[in-house]
Amino acid sequence: MRVIIAEDAPILREGLVRLLADAGCTIVGQTDHGPGLVALTAEHQPDVIIVDIRLPPTHTDEGLRAALRVRQDHPAIGVLLLSQYVESSSAVQVLAREPRGFGYLLKERLADVEELVAALRRVAAGESVIDPLVVERLLSRRRVASALDELTRREREVLTLMAEGRSNEAIAQRLGVGGKTVETYVRNIFAKLCLEPRLADHRRVLAVLAYLQG
Fold it and tell me: What is the pLDDT of residues 88-98, one digit of tens each?
């Protein structure tokens, strides 16, 4: 798997390069700013890019904007966004528009190399990956609380796993229940939230994130 890393903290960037290389990834480029990411991506055509949302010079959303440029120019390349904080106003809007091949992890997750590599492979394969902590915090911020209040505890667990981009089969394995049971939970969730269920996993994520961002 060919990877480009855009991260302005040298220690973290070099750490990622070493960890991913040890895990079998090929690092074809690294940079500390958005324009460098766009140029390197065009030159090397990686399978996936890792992008810090906040890059120089203002450390606001330069990384996100560069990732969007990459997505526009190279839609087949996976994009994994990194953030120190939950950037619900920007990153989630991007994910809600087109979640396929897009991921969003908090930097505190980077210590788990196996989890990071698994997320990269899923994003490179066109799946969606969202940090469980992001989902939890977005759920807690949701303005229309009455709809969420109608969900049972188990339905909320299923909703969280759905928003992480997991399939019904993966949810059943995680919760230790049958596939038919998960299908029932999913139907109940969409009904209670007034969301039309979709067949494709990335459209399920689209619906859930659209609801979460309100």
Answer: 556 656 655 67
pLDDT band at 167 (very low <50, low <70, confident <90, very high): confident
**How many angstroms separate the Cα of 58 from the Cα of each of 34, 48, 53, 61, 128?**
11, 25, 11, 8, 28
CB atoms within 10 A of CB 27: 19
CATH classification of 2-132, choosing from 3.40.50.2300, 3.40.190.10, 1.10.760.10, 2.60.120.1440? 3.40.50.2300
Query: Which of the four CATH numbers 3.40.630.30, 2.60.200.30, 1.10.10.10, 2.30.40.10 does domain 142-213 have?
Result: 1.10.10.10
Report pTM: 0.69
